[in-house]
Amino acid sequence: MATTTAKSNGSKGAELSHSEVHYFNSYNHHGIHEEMLKDEVRTRSYRDAIYNNKHIFKDKVVLDVGCGTAILSMYTYPSSTSAPSSTTCPARTARALD
User: Fold this and answer.
1) d(CA 64, CA 46)
2) For the CA atoms of the chain, what is the radius of gyration?
3) Nearest to 64 by CA among 76, 55, 53
């Protein structure tokens, strides 16, 4: 697999292949998140899986890495012991705040 020195967010770190850079950059646009949220079957399936398995989240701390819209974090909140911690790509977050 060919690698490139381009990073998905311009930071230092491991080299990513061209396809990996493309994949991660595809999440830099709000449209993909809107599309996923509008996918009712997908979103409801995640919600139902979490709501129907509250025992898994009971007394747990939830860390949602790469949270995007944080919808999954919101679904876990009623079941976990504390508010979930969510993190996403800082570059995308900065653009969203502009």
Assistant:
1) 13
2) 16
3) 76
